[in-house]
Design brief:
This protein is an alpha/beta fold and 220 residues long. The chain folds into 2 domains: 119 residues, Response regulator (Rossmann fold), CATH 3.40.50.2300; 92 residues, Winged helix-like DNA-binding domain superfamily/Winged helix DNA-binding domain (Arc Repressor Mutant, subunit A, Orthogonal Bundle). The protein contains 8 helices and 12 strands. The strands form 3 sheets. Strands 2-1-3-4-5 form a 5-stranded parallel β-sheet, with helices on both faces. Strands 6-7-8-9 form a 4-stranded antiparallel β-sheet, covered by helices on one side. A 3-stranded antiparallel β-sheet has the order 10-12-11. Helix 2 packs parallel to helix 3 and helix 6 packs across helix 8. The protein is elongated and about 55 Å long. The mean pLDDT is 86.
Length: 220
């Protein structure tokens, strides 16, 4: 899950970057409002964490600018201001959620995952296909009720296919999901992750290769 962190405070930024990276987010950290606006247009992020107290632009101006430019990605605002009128203003400007500093990292991660699920149209954080269940909130995969340890990319690959089991997922689409922010990707990189995922799931027939098109998850 690709996340843009907009935070000028070095200590807080490092803590959030580390905490969310440990919770399976791919974090890109910028420190100014101008950089946030530029970066959000350059890369298609899943979610933004925006601090209001920025050195060049007020966070509310950054938020307003992102929405005026047509950005529909979820935005969670960090603020030190425990003020109901300020909260109303932020929500009116287009914030999807907010947290008051200091905050709990687990709660922040849970809220961010909920925002992304809502954006993607997921009703619940758990997906299932036959004996496979995927808990997006806790980054957990079970096969026949037994935990399976996956890498970030393997998890993203499996989740993409589990959103529509039995449907053929094109190679191009899966590469976009798994390698979203990478400029150069080896030609066989996706096949390597599919091979590893098949091995970890314990049944190679569950992920079917549709030659010349992509892959299909068949785990019924």
């Amino acid at each position: 899950m690709d996340l843009l962190l907009v935070e000028d405070d070095a200590m807080l930024g490092q803590a959030v970057e580390l905490g969310l990276s440990e919770r399976q987010f791919n974090v890109q950290w910028v420190r100014t409002g101008a950089a946030a606006i530029s970066e959000s247009q350059r890369v298609n992020y899943d979610v933004v964490v925006l601090d209001l107290g920025l050195p060049d632009l007020d966070g509310s101006r950054v938020l307003s600018s992102l929405r005026k430019k047509g950005q529909v990605l979820p935005i969670l605002v960090l603020t030190a201001r425990d003020d109901s009128s300020e909260t109303v203003k932020l929500l009116d400007l287009g914030a999807d959620d907010y947290m008051i500093k200091p905050f709990d990292m687990n709660e922040l991660a849970a809220r961010l995952r909920a925002l992304v699920r809502r954006q993607r149209g997921y009703a619940t954080p758990e997906l299932s296909c036959g004996p496979i269940s995927l808990d997006e909130l806790n980054f957990q995969v079970l096969v026949n009720q037994q935990p399976v340890n996956l890498s970030k990319r393997e998890f993203e690959l499996l989740r993409a296919m589990m959103t529509a089991p039995e449907r053929v997922h094109s190679r191009d689409k899966l590469e976009q999901i798994v390698f979203r922010n990478e400029q150069q990707v080896e030609s066989n990189a996706l096949e390597v992750h599919v091979h590893n995922l098949r091995k970890k799931l314990g049944n190679k027939e569950w992920i079917q290769t549709i030659r010349g098109v992509g892959y299909r998850l068949a785990c019924g």
